[in-house]
Specification:
The protein is α+β, with helices and mostly antiparallel strands and 452 residues long. The chain has 22 helices and ten strands. The strands form three sheets. Strands 2-1-3-10-6 form a five-stranded mixed sheet.
């Protein structure tokens, strides 16, 4: 009987999917490790049953070993398919089996696999999973590999520094950034011209004046949604203080930023109330329909706007400045599970996914933004008006949860913050009292974690 091998599922490309996932990825409620352990590892066992059955009848194929790869469904670019195919050509006898998953499904499968010590060889993971999984001892340290190949990769020197830090614990590297995104201000040039607004705003005061000038006849100057961290970071608000082991958000700077966002909706009425704080899709739809003139978003919305509203005259401006010019950041990383059966070969494939050549090809194909400094400086990126602004913005972006993730309680604390944010934005609860209540509850969790 011939061996049946799993075929590479990398021939599906849907440019709009990465962007549609990103905002909800950041705000969705994730399954906890305890939830998965209650499942008794049944899912992990079934995960690897199929390949075992397929290869149990003996082998006449030249394929001797398979690299098992988990990948985001929204990032199944043809470029990555070609990377895997080239790897197979360069390594006879090896097959790359890429399994695409929605993030929630992947998380479930990974956690059950960690519990059962049955894991893939290489995984694309969300931004905040690296530290979480590493803290629990589920990821392979990449330091030995980087000692040999780091110079060839130009790692870490060619990566944005915060993207390096967010993949480390106590200086040990457990992941390397694959994609890197940040929200900037998308704006309608025709609406600006009609309202007499000559350039995108740079400060909060300029922003409010522009939003007021752009609001009229059921058309709004801005759409306030789940993207609140650019505002908080611009006012120098921190999510977590690792020295004091507390959430330092019961401060005047926090109150000012959240009150400003709330006032855009309820006081100045330059923004409609967001439909949901877990889904920013409606903002893109309002922008494409020319119902709003500005909103914060990232590269994930470029393709939907271009395909759905090809005649829209729009641009991308940098993030605003209050006390600082900042914006938040998101993205994905590559990791190798500690129990991977083929870690050495996984590292060989790992490096190819991270090359500058691959980054630029994925940007051309899917309008994805990347962590390398040389990517931002490349002529290809600088010449693309829809991508070049992100090459600038990623240099001053920062992940708001960088130190919070080290507590092991970031998911629970973020859920508390979403509840507080909903009370403030929807119900107009007093900002100071609501945030003080949030901080009290969050600090109990932070003290409970304390893994840093």
């Amino acid at each position: 009987m011939k061996t049946i091998t799993m075929e590479l599922r990398g021939n599906v490309t849907e440019i709009s999917k990465p962007g549609k996932q990103e905002p909800s990825e950041q705000l969705g409620t994730a399954k906890t490790r305890r939830d998965i352990l209650k499942m008794g590892g049944a899912l992990a066992a079934s995960t690897f049953a199929l390949p075992a059955i397929l290869t149990a009848c003996g082998a006449t194929s030249s394929v001797n070993k398979t690299l098992q790869v988990y990948w985001s469904t929204g990032h199944m670019y043809k470029t990555y398919t070609q990377v895997a195919q080239k790897f197979e050509q360069d390594h006879p006898g090896w097959k790359v089996n890429v399994e695409p998953y929605q993030w929630s499904d992947m998380r479930t499968k990974l956690l059950s696999g960690f519990a059962a010590h049955r894991v893939p060889d290489l995984v694309e993971v969300q931004r905040d999973w690296v530290q979480e999984f590493a803290l629990d001892g589920d990821l392979l340290s990449l330091d030995a590999n980087l000692k040999v190949d780091g110079k060839k990769l130009n790692y870490p020197d060619d990566w944005q520094p915060y993207a390096v830090n967010h993949n480390q614990i106590n200086g040990v590297t457990y992941g390397i950034q694959l994609h890197l995104t940040c929200p900037l201000i998308f704006y309608n040039k025709d609406m600006f011209a009609k309202a007499g607004v000559t350039q995108p705003p740079k400060t909060w005061d300029e922003f409010l004046a522009a939003a007021q000038a752009l609001t009229h006849d059921n058309v709004y100057g801005f759409a306030a949604d789940s993207t609140v961290w650019p505002w908080l970071l611009q006012n120098n608000v921190s999510y977590y203080d690792p020295v004091k082991r507390e959430v330092p958000m019961a401060t005047p700077d926090t109150y000012q930023a959240l009150q400003f966002i709330t006032d855009l909706i309820h006081k100045y009425k330059v923004s409609p109330a967001p439909v949901s704080l877990t889904d920013a899709t409606n903002s893109q739809q309002l922008f494409s329909a020319q119902r709003i003139a500005m909103y914060y978003t990232g590269p994930w919305d470029i393709a939907p706007i271009m395909s759905g509203s090809p005649n829209l005259h729009w641009g991308i401006a940098q993030a605003l400045t209050a006390k600082s010019q900042k914006t938040t950041t998101n993205g994905t990383s590559l990791v190798i599970p500690k129990d991977a059966k083929n870690a050495e070969m996984a590292w060989e494939l790992f490096q190819t996914y991270l090359s500058l050549e691959t980054e630029l090809a994925v940007t051309k194909e899917g309008l994805m933004t990347m962590p390398r400094k040389s990517w931002a400086a490349s002529p290809q990126v600088k010449s693309e008006s829809r991508i070049a602004p992100f090459g600038v913005g990623l240099a001053y972006a920062e992940p708001e949860t960088l130190t919070l993730d080290l507590t092991g309680q970031s998911g629970a604390i973020e859920n508390l913050f979403k509840t507080a944010l909903g009370d403030i934005i929807y119900n107009q609860h007093p900002v100071p009292a609501t945030m003080q209540q949030f901080v009290t509850a969050a600090n109990k969790l932070a003290q409970k974690g304390g893994k840093s």
